[in-house]
Amino acid sequence: MMALIGIAAVALGVIVGWFAGQAPARVGRRSRWTSREMRPTVIVTWLLCAAGSGILAIAGARALAGASQYAQLVNDDLGELGLRVDRLSGVFLVITFAVALPVVVAALASGHERRPRMASAVALVLLCTAIVICADNLFLLLAAWEGLGFSFYLLVGYDRDRPGRGAASLLAIGFSKVSGAALLLGGLILAAQSHTFALQGLADGTHGWPRDLAYALLVFAFVAKAGLVPLHLWLPPAYAATPGPARAVLAGVAVNVAFYGLWRTLDVVGAPAPWLAAVVLVVAGVSAILGISHAAVHAKLLELIGWSSVENAGLILSGYGVALVGAATDEKMMTAAGLVAATAQVCAHALGKSLLFTAASDIEDTLGTTDLDRLRGVIFVRPAAGVGLAVGSFTLAGLPLTAGFASEWLTLEALMQQFRLHNLALELSTAVAAVLVALTIGVAGIAFVRLVALTVFGRPSTPLAAPSTHAPQVLPAAAMLVLGAACLGTALLAPLEVDMIAEGVRPIVGGAAFSADAGQWILQPVYPGFSALSPTLLWIVLPSFIALLMAMTLLFSGRRFFAVRRVPPWTSASRGVPGVRGYTSFGYAHAIRKVLAALLRTRHELRSEEQADVTITNAPGAREARLGYVVDVADVVERYVYRPLIPLARSTVHAAKRLQSGRLDAYMAYMLVALVAVVAVVTALGGG
Description:
Blueprint: H1 2-20, H2 40-64, E1 69-76, E2 79-85, H3 87-108, H4 118-134, H5 138-156, H6 165-194, H7 208-226, H8 235-241, H9 244-254, H10 256-269, H11 274-297, H12 301-328, H13 332-367, H14 378-381, H15 383-397, H16 403-415, H17 424-456, H18 474-492, H19 494-509, E3 517-519, E4 522-523, H20 535-557, H21 585-588, H22 590-595, H23 597-600, E5 603-612, H24 614-617, E6 623-632, H25 636-642, H26 646-659, H27 664-687
Antiparallel strand pairs: 1-2, 3-4, 5-6
């Protein structure tokens, strides 16, 4: 089985990478490598990760072509534990590990001699990701899920001596534990009724409220890993705290297991309760607008990209919500439309987010800052990273000629099918989600225009620091080139991408005949004749019109086209007022802070400050009184949902401490009570 070979390669990388950190680096007169060179074991680990990723992507492609694979690992009282690659797991293997390959290659050349075991932690992420996607047994899936949460904890808290890493890693492992508990409880409820732990038969014979409860718990478990509101609290700080090369692995690779879990839940359990579909749609729309609102105003590059992950989780889950609505109402075509749109958005997010974080890692390592007001004109000092930021931003903003344009169009078209429903609650929830997603796409354009226009191409008021040259640039630049070409090429070949996705999700739809490819390189939202779009023809038409416009401009303007008229630069302040001229990244986002003040809880404050200023008073040591204008935003979920729960959580912890008396008989009594409760619940569910 090819997938087993890929998993074995990554598992070997975990072991080799772990031993890379056993002994300190050899530095000195007799050293074979210097402190700025990676140890051979670290290089071998990254190469094993790259090889395993390539093999897993090929295994997924073979499954999509019809060559399903199965490998039995154990056969005991829990049933057969094995790895299975079918069409659904195949499409996620292709999306996940085709992206992982260039990301790992970029990390290979990143140096990081101070982090010898980081490669092992990344390999553990890839290993658990592959097992989750290929597992065919509930307990194997749970084991890999817990391992994934542990690897997140290792990576987020790797640089534990840096500020904020401890809190971010605790948030990551805390939400992972909550997710794992929900997955365990939901799976056991289904297993109690079906009397099997095999995924394919896990929901057989289930019915009534236990089935609905289990379905809700499974959805809760997977959206917690995706970062959907209100379970997003861990995601932006965790991504920002993770060491540079590993961010793209977490955000563009590992997060796909959450979406795979949701797709597999729909495949295994079947149609959900209508109320669950409505809740998913509304929460997804709220997540999308909340995530992009914070991304549009954030002053740090890493946090901006992290908040855009919350937005993209909302966009993806909007399409998935449409699929749930279709399943709940037995509208197979709507289920197909939602799954195709959501999976296309998963692909666009994986490519764009991996590219953005790879470029951001290069910028952070070489320029030493991620402050957007200090990062101006990045493309002039780090061309590859600047191009990566631009293409990744265009992809996540859903602009034409990128993968995000077709996927967001398909999502909107899927949401527009609400007129086919005959359930008022589902119609309203679909309409609400459509409005929120449309608003999100508009704000995303503003957010990423700020990143591209000011950070990538803007002229800095003060020159950026010269980039350090200790890190090789060839492999990271090549990786960013591959990811950028994939973002653009996926749009050019969008019908082929949609055909691949359709093959992967067809088993969930139940064999219904559908296609989102209308032929002639034209896409449609599954429903023939509803609407049509050709991203491929846009690649021909738009560049042709631009070339025609440039030619006509040159023809009719003559030499005047190259004439330059120089004028004083625009400034919003008068002479003598300190500050940079023109827009800053902070100032550009101020309109969003004002318009969305109710959502962002924008706070304004004037502070009286004193600072030395000899340029105006001409008196050395003189102090000038100034008013400082402070603008801040807050996460409404963190402020109004989680913060009020802190006193209750502390009281619960104190009460739990009092139960720890140190008496063995008391602990035995606790275990007896827990055992009786579990037996009673399982017996009741199994008998129902």
